[in-house]
Structures are given as structure tokens and as C-alpha cells.
Design goal:
Layout lengths: L1 H8 L2 H4 L3 H16 L13 E5 L11 H6 L4 E3 L5 E3 L2 E7 L4 E6 L13 H11 L8 E5 L2 E5 L7 H4 L20 E7 L2 E6 L12 E5 L4 H9 L5 E3 L5 H6 L3 E4 L4 E7 L8 H10 L2 H8 L5 E2 L6 H4 L11 H8 L7 E5 L3 H16 L4 E4 L9 E7 L5 H11 L11 H12 L4 E7 L2 E4 L3 E2 L15 E2 L4
Parallel strand pairs: 1-10, 1-11, 15-16, 15-17
Antiparallel strand pairs: 2-3, 4-5, 5-7, 6-7, 8-9, 9-10, 11-19, 12-19, 13-17, 13-18, 14-18, 20-21
Length: about 450
């Protein structure tokens, strides 16, 4: 019908002098024709959205459950820009030493209790009791006031981080988000729609997150209609498309990096430098991660700063051996997250370091006895370079504000940190999921997290 309407409109071009209106009508019709069929369908309320994941929905950072149940004072939109959440607005004074965040009025937690400045401050203090981006935080009327001994120019972006999501309870089970906890049984987490969510009720009635499911089982369940969203590991993106899965892929949002201890066996900076020189990023990129993402020796992706090329990514085995020259590197341990690609990458790094004269063994993660080296995936927190860099540094336990806002000075801050060789960037990777045919309007956030509150099911009653 739309196509016929467009054809019927064409004669009007020669018959009328008001061509602007005619062309405007034609552009609208063309735009509607370009939309996929699902986009023209009004979303339905109801139904259960079924997720399957390999890991734990509560894991930090970027566990699916926390972002569905909890909100922060601020949040990052799909374009990576800071926007209001529980805070309606904010302002800084005294050259960013003082920030005041005005709470959104009339918001309630999922248990019915009111969100007040006191409950927000209590939640923030539970989340961060030491080495925080601020020196002190206070409840003042309906506002939350942060003060710092140093300037805090990036505070609004930092407060969107998973670590500072607001909860009414110490366990983080009662929030203000679009979904609320119903139960967690037999590795299935059930969340139901929060009818009184300040941002509006989600379309689906509930979400089931099936945890600890292998990728093979996830894809099998997707093929027979038992799952609506499954994970696509970055190294299997090509395979997923070959199997005609409908894939949602984020921009580069995760840094793969090697954490290096600066104490014990690796207290000598030359040994850490030798490790950085020995790692073959190209092999990780080409072999393990199937040429997805980009090779990097920078903490921030090249699209964000434009200066990533200044950090060399090439392996230099001769210089690595030269750096530890007369030193006999002690036996070292390397831990990695669970998952086939992470374990394969860890083994590849062990071979790289063996070539440089290091004796390294892969071990299981152990919080009580951390390994000398740890392979980590670190989320990109913002598209604002200074805020993103400060979040990266804090993740590396460097409590230092990034005061500079221009690229040249941000580069200097990053270079000075990377020269310590306590964090070795390797690759920047996207995140990806496959969705089923009945899902509508499900998108990924800037960090690759599924935005399930906006999703609807085509077959909902």
C-alpha cells in the first residue's frame, strides 16, 4: 500500500507549485518503506524474555542482572554520553572540587520505600568506602554533595559505573530499575517487571536468565526457540553469521589486558618491561580472536583519542631478552577468566614469555593468592576520553583523577601510567549477542549490555 501511495504522489510534482510539501511527503513514504517489518509493528506488553549466558548474572562488571535491577545517579546512553538517571541534574563549583546532584523526585525502590538522599549516600558508602573518586559524600536536603581534595571533572561519568549503582539493601537486590528480583533457582534467575519504575514499565512481563550454559547449548536452544537472546563470543562472530543467527554487535567496548604485579617476583620494572615486549598481540588477534576488534597498546581505542598509534604494538623479542639480560626471571603464575578463548589466549601468552626466557604456568583464579599475571577484560566506561581513562586507571587501582581534557595532556597521563608496565593493553574487542525472531527493539548499550527494558516480544498476548 505504501509503495502504491508513493507512485500515486508522483504526478503531483507537475501539477502543483508547492513542491516542498510533495517532496516532504515522498521522503516520509520512502523512510517508511525502508523500515523493516518489525519496526512498523507497535510493541506489545507481556511475555517472558529468555536469556542464556555462560557466566554468572551477578558478576561484576557488566553482569546482566545488576543493570536490569539497579540505577545509578547517572547513566551512559547508547552513544556513550552521560545523561540523568536517579539524579535529575547536577552542577559543580570550586573548580570541580564540589559537586551537587539533585535527586529525581518521587522515585521509589522496588520494595516501596522512597529514594532519599540519605539512602543514596548509604548505598554509595557501602559501594566505596576507601580510595573513592571523592573525599567525602553527604546528604543535603534532596541533594547528594560530593567534595574532593582534588578536582573531580569526570565525576558525572564515573558515577554511571556498575560499582556505584544504588540499592536499598547491602546485598544489592532491591533497586529502582525496570525489573525486580523474583527468585534464583536451579541456575535460573527470574526478574519481573517493575510496574512503578520511574522510567516507565518495561514491555515484557519477566526475564529469565539461564546461567552456566555452554555456548553450544545456548545456540542449540536458540535454534529450537527455547532462547531469545544468547551470547556470541567475539571469536565466533563469523561462525554465528554463517549459521544465519541475527547478531547484535557493539562498538569496541572491552579492553583485553594483562595485569602485572609490581611486587614480589616482578618488583623489578625491567622484568615487567620485558614481559610487555614479549607478548605477540598479532597472534592473539589473528588466531585466537579471529581478526575481530583491533590490536592496541593503548588503554583507549584509537577512535576515541586519535593517538593510539603512538603506542607501539609490535613484539620485540630481542629487546625483551635484553631487558632482563643478567637477571634470572623467577617462575611466574598467570590466571585468566573462564572461557575457551581466554584460556587459549593465556596459553599463547605463556608460549610468548617462554620464548623470552620466562617460566610461566597458568593457574586458576584465586582471590586469596593473586597470580603474578592476570588476563582481564576491562569495560570501556565512557566515550569521553578523560573519564574513560580515569575509570581504567581506577580499575588498575590507581587512584588519580585525570584533570586534563585535551588529547595531548590525556596522552601524557596515559603514557606515564603505561610506562610502569603494570597493565599491558592487548586488544580492543566488541561484545555480541544473537536474538530470536520474536524479539523486537532489543539494542545494546555503549558498553555492549543488552537494553532489555525497551525490548518487546512479537507474540506477546
Amino acid at each position: 500500500m505504501l509503495r502504491q501511495l508513493a507512485m500515486n504522489s508522483l504526478p503531483a510534482l507537475g501539477a502543483k507549485t508547492n513542491t516542498r510539501r510533495v517532496w516532504a511527503t515522498l521522503w516520509i513514504i520512502v523512510a517508511l518503506l525502508a523500515l523493516p517489518a518489525g519496526a512498523r509493528t507497535r510493541p506489545h506488553y507481556g511475555g517472558i524474555l529468555r536469556f542464556e549466558i555462560e557466566g554468572d548474572p551477578w558478576q561484576r562488571p557488566n553482569g546482566l542482572a545488576r543493570r536490569l535491577m539497579l540505577d545509578g545517579l547517572t547513566r551512559i546512553d547508547a552513544n556513550g554520553v552521560v545523561e540523568p538517571a536517579l539524579a535529575l541534574n547536577w552542577k559543580s563549583e570550586n573548580e570541580a572540587h564540589h559537586w551537587e546532584f539533585q535527586l529525581r523526585p518521587g522515585v521509589h525502590f522496588q520494595d516501596g520505600s522512597s529514594v532519599t538522599s540519605v539512602t543514596v549516600v548509604n548505598s554509595i558508602n557501602v559501594a566505596c568506602s576507601a580510595n573513592c573518586p571523592w573525599t567525602a559524600v553527604h546528604a543535603v536536603g534532596s541533594s547528594i554533595v560530593f567534595t574532593g581534595d582534588s578536582p573531580m571533572p569526570n565525576l558525572p561519568a564515573l558515577l554511571s559505573d556498575d560499582e556505584y549503582l544504588i540499592a536499598a539493601d547491602a546485598g544489592g537486590n532491591i533497586g529502582t530499575g525496570p525489573f525486580q528480583l523474583k527468585g534464583f533457582n536451579n541456575a535460573v534467575l527470574t526478574l519481573t517487571a517493575n510496574e512503578s519504575c520511574w522510567a516507565g514499565r518495561p514491555f515484557v512481563d519477566a526475564i529469565e536468565i539461564h546461567a552456566r550454559r555452554s555456548i553450544r547449548d545456548q545456540w542449540l536452544d536458540m535454534s529450537v526457540g527455547r532462547a531469545d537472546l544468547v551470547e556470541v563470543p567475539v571469536e565466533q562472530l563469523r561462525q554465528a553469521r554463517e549459521q544465519h543467527l541475527t547478531v547484535l554487535q557493539s562498538p569496541l567496548s572491552t579492553l583485553l589486558a594483562l595485569r602485572v604485579s609490581s611486587s614480589g617476583a616482578l618488583a623489578n620494572p625491567d622484568l615487567r618491561w620485558a614481559i610487555a615486549l614479549a607478548v605477540d598481540r598479532g597472534a592473539l588477534f589473528n588466531v585466537i580472536f579471529q581478526k575481530q576488534g583491533e590490536v592496541t597498546a593503548s588503554l583507549l581505542p584509537s577512535a576515541l583519542t586519535g593517538y593510539a598509534f603512538l603506542f607501539p604494538t609490535e613484539r620485540d623479542l630481542n629487546k625483551s631478552r635484553e631487558k632482563h639480560g643478567g637477571l634470572t626471571p623467577p617462575p611466574l603464575t598467570l590466571s585468566a577468566e573462564e572461557g575457551g578463548a581466554m584460556q587459549l589466549a593465556a596459553q599463547r601468552i605463556v608460549l610468548n614469555l617462554h620464548d623470552a626466557g620466562f617460566n610461566v604456568q597458568v593457574v586458576a583464579e584465586n582471590g586469596a593468592h593473586p597470580a603474578d599475571l592476570a588476563l582481564r577484560r576491562i569495560p570501556l566506561a565512557s566515550n569521553q576520553p578523560a573519564a574513560a581513562l580515569e575509570a581504567m586507571l581506577r580499575g588498575a587501582e590507581v587512584n588519580a583523577p585525570v584533570l586534563a581534557q585535551d588529547p595531548a595532556r590525556i596522552y601524557t597521563v596515559e603514557r606515564d601510567f603505561l610506562d610502569t608496565h603494570t597493565l599491558i593493553p592487548l586488544l580492543y574487542l566488541p561484545r555480541a549477542y544473537a536474538i530470536g525472531g520474536r524479539v523486537r527493539d532489543l539494542r545494546l548499550g555503549a558498553d555492549g549490555t543488552p537494553q532489555a527494558a525497551d525490548a518487546a516480544l512479537e507474540d506477546a498476548p
